[in-house]
Amino acid sequence: MATAARPAPLSPPERWTLAATVLGSSLAFLDGTVVNVALSAVQRDLNATAGGVQWVVNAYALMLAALTLAGGALGDAYGRRRVYAWGVGLFALASLACGLAPNLGTLIVARAVQGVGAALLVPGSLAMIGAVFDESRRGRGVGLWSAASSVMTLLGPVLGGVLVDLGSWRWVFFINLPLAVGVLALLPRVPETSAPGARPDWPGAVSITAGLGGLAYAFTRAGEGGWDAVALGSLAVAALGFLAFAWQESRSDKPMLPLGLFRNRVFVGTNLLTLLLYGALGAVGLYLPLALIGSRGFSATEAGAALLPLSLLLAGLSGLFGSLSDRHGPRLFLTLGPALAGVGFALLGLGQGSYLTAILPGALVLGLGMALTVAPLSSTVMGSVPREQSGVASGVNNAVARAASLLAVATLGLLLVGSYRGALDTRLRAAGASAELRRVAVSQATRLTDLKLPPGAPAQAREAVNAAFGDAFRTVALACGALGVLGGVAGGLMLGGVRTGMRDEE
């Protein structure tokens, strides 16, 4: 009986490249999840409002979303290992600044610099694997990188919760420093590679940053102070930024985003699905820990572990559903998966009682929905374009996922604060609170769970405040559920007749 040939062992350069890329990309993946668990402590220590909390997340997401493609081109032009090292070093310095930040403004600026560092190192991870690994082992290298990175992402919220509970939210950032030192120690053993002739699209990067940043700031500002002149001015800046981006991409000979891709039905459909689903995931990922810690009384560790079933299902089932999608086509998976994730989002808002009844069912349904979606989505994005454009398509899809989280946090933050104001008045009135107490509470709605009641306020008033934030989170969770279902509709309508591996040239 014939036996399957054992895979060839990795060469030393391949092993060092894999180690450096897994450890380095873990910096960005950890910070994408670990910080959310620390936000309640950050808000309390730095006296932050809802807008401040959002910008601790958004400053990082904005720079990563806007500069990822430029960072990849920079590595192609000047050497992937060199630019990767720049990104790791910048990320480490920014992490140190975050951990030492004396006030909220400093923390937000340092988070933006972290995002720039992440934009330099994230695209370099797979690019270095693709360039260094032998073609026969490249798929294996990507698989090992994905598995190791998934484990780090899975452990991030739990690690963050432990660090907050045992020490301080500042340790969430300090933990990056030894990781960065380890990466920089490994990099000299990684071969340098480049793609001569590549160059970053800096005008495109600047204009898309203005567009995304202006839009996010407009909605965040409106959530705190209404649609004043500053918020409306930010909308105008966003519109000009997006128009400038479209003009730049249409005239550039090496655009960051080739506009011709938008004539491709499958490319448009998969990115619309990504925008809706990952926007919902980003908003729930931010606001659920705040609700669990500030409203339900969870510790940071418990809040970090709350969605662990989601991560376990995603890590355990993604490979299976990816293989099934290869055999049967992606349409069913990209219709059912996002819709099921939408049900999971809604269940997280509707659940009542203990963790087992309030959170676990939603986490399990959401995890199953994401597991159905993630691998088929990635392969369909890359298979929707000619092979020479697959890298650009994958990069654009990753940037869309980051931008989706940024925009959803801003827009659904507006919904959260508005809902919280109404729920505060209703809940406090039902608890018998005076008109003055209701006025004081409602005026602090932008403080979210860090709302401070006057001395001597009855215990029922604090219970009413906690319940009101639960009501506001429920509204956001239901909105995220609707986004997930709409993502499934987009998948079903736009992917009819598509088979994995088919290059749609429409």
Automatic annotation (TrEMBL):
<feature type="transmembrane region" description="Helical">
    <location>
        <begin position="169"/>
        <end position="190"/>
    </location>
</feature>
<feature type="transmembrane region" description="Helical">
    <location>
        <begin position="305"/>
        <end position="325"/>
    </location>
</feature>
<feature type="transmembrane region" description="Helical">
    <location>
        <begin position="108"/>
        <end position="133"/>
    </location>
</feature>
<feature type="transmembrane region" description="Helical">
    <location>
        <begin position="268"/>
        <end position="293"/>
    </location>
</feature>
<feature type="transmembrane region" description="Helical">
    <location>
        <begin position="356"/>
        <end position="378"/>
    </location>
</feature>
<feature type="domain" description="Major facilitator superfamily (MFS) profile">
    <location>
        <begin position="17"/>
        <end position="499"/>
    </location>
</feature>
<keyword id="KW-0472">Membrane</keyword>
<dbReference type="GO" id="GO:0016020">
    <property type="term" value="C:membrane"/>
</dbReference>
<dbReference type="InterPro" id="IPR036259">
    <property type="entry name" value="MFS_trans_sf"/>
</dbReference>
<dbReference type="GO" id="GO:0022857">
    <property type="term" value="F:transmembrane transporter activity"/>
</dbReference>
<keyword id="KW-0812">Transmembrane</keyword>
<feature type="transmembrane region" description="Helical">
    <location>
        <begin position="142"/>
        <end position="163"/>
    </location>
</feature>
<feature type="transmembrane region" description="Helical">
    <location>
        <begin position="476"/>
        <end position="498"/>
    </location>
</feature>
<dbReference type="Pfam" id="PF07690">
    <property type="entry name" value="MFS_1"/>
</dbReference>
<feature type="transmembrane region" description="Helical">
    <location>
        <begin position="332"/>
        <end position="350"/>
    </location>
</feature>
<feature type="transmembrane region" description="Helical">
    <location>
        <begin position="83"/>
        <end position="102"/>
    </location>
</feature>
<protein>
    <submittedName>
        <fullName>MFS transporter</fullName>
    </submittedName>
</protein>
<feature type="transmembrane region" description="Helical">
    <location>
        <begin position="202"/>
        <end position="220"/>
    </location>
</feature>
<dbReference type="InterPro" id="IPR020846">
    <property type="entry name" value="MFS_dom"/>
</dbReference>
<feature type="transmembrane region" description="Helical">
    <location>
        <begin position="56"/>
        <end position="74"/>
    </location>
</feature>
<feature type="transmembrane region" description="Helical">
    <location>
        <begin position="399"/>
        <end position="420"/>
    </location>
</feature>
<feature type="transmembrane region" description="Helical">
    <location>
        <begin position="226"/>
        <end position="247"/>
    </location>
</feature>
<keyword id="KW-1133">Transmembrane helix</keyword>
<dbReference type="InterPro" id="IPR011701">
    <property type="entry name" value="MFS"/>
</dbReference>
